[in-house]
Amino acid sequence: MAYKRQDDFSKSDVEFAGYARALSHPARIAILRVLSTRDSFSCGDIVKVMPMAQPTVSQHLKELRLVGLIKYEIKPPRVIYSLNVKKFQRAEKLWLKNFATEK
Amino acid sequence: MAYKRQDDFSKSDVEFAGYARALSHPARIAILRVLSTRDSFSCGDIVKVMPMAQPTVSQHLKELRLVGLIKYEIKPPRVIYSLNVKKFQRAEKLWLKNFATEK
DNA sequence: GTGAATTATTGCAAATATACGATATTTTCG
DNA sequence: CGAAAATATCGTATATTTGCAATAATTCAC
Question: Which of A23, A49, A50 would best serve as a mutation to test chain B binding (most B beta carbons within 10 A)?
Fold first, then answer.
């Protein structure tokens, strides 16, 4: 009986929780910040600057992909990653809708 | 060998990931939104509107407390919870520092 | 084709997170 | 004091996350 009962919550809350989850690991924050500095990075470029093995980085990239926060383009033999700004705006919008601190 | 290697990342990334983690469950989003509607809620008030058992709600409140997103005040026999706006602003600040989409 | 380069996937072990019944704790009220 | 009310904690079952070696898959250069 230990399960995330997503059906008990609103779609919007589940969506926002998904973005938050993607951001809940410092490696993924670091990856996103790297991606924010330039338009395109290969997976290998990212591996080079991250303190983790290639499969681990690849896995983190996958999670960011799955929630849509990053896009990718296959340019054999590389895969080029970049931020998906639209999704960042979407996440921001949900944040503001719920918790704007309106300074 | 499966551990979060927080030492490999910057303090600020670990801090932000902590806030994101707290927001990564829809129940906690829902709780925070409830708290945002009024100045004070007892634990029981929150349990009443949440689709989960009292110990589960209490546990989620604890996690929100631990990252500082909510404050509490003991008013026997109740415990009164409220948002900690300062922490929300802090989380927002870290977000903007890293990923402002500056529309 | 063979081998090198790049990335994703698999499989597994360990750590964390989730849910909640049972119980402990604290305080109030009669 | 004894019972009720409110909340937190414990214990436990289950699920999810994390990290990485090993390996698969894809493509290029020769």
Answer: A23
Q: Nearest CA to CA, how far is B81 from chain A (Å)?
A: 16
In this prediction the pTM is: 0.92
A22, A28 contact by CB (below 8 A): yes
Closest nucleotide to B21 by C1' from CA:
C17
Q: Which of B17, B30, B36 sits opposite A26 (nearest CB)?
A: B17
* DSSP β-ladder status, A78-83 and B78-83: unpaired
Domain ranges across chain B: 11-98
Q: What is the pLDDT of residue B99?
A: 85
Count of CB atoms within 10 A of residue A73's CB? Answer: 10
CB contact under 8 A, B26 and A20: no
Residue B37 CA to nucleotide C20 C1', Å? 28
Instruction: Give the CATH number of domain A11-96; options: 1.10.10.10, 3.40.366.10, 3.40.50.300, 1.10.357.10.
Output: 1.10.10.10
Q: What does the alpha-carbon distance between residue B28 and residue B70 come to, in Å, rounded to a whole number?
A: 11
pLDDT at A34: 97
Mean pLDDT by runs of 10 across the 103 residues of chain B is 69 97 98 95 96 96 97 93 97 91 59
CATH topology of domain B11-98: Arc Repressor Mutant, subunit A (1.10.10)
Tens digits of per-residue pLDDT, A68-103? Answer: 999 999 998 899 999 999 999 999 999 999 987 655
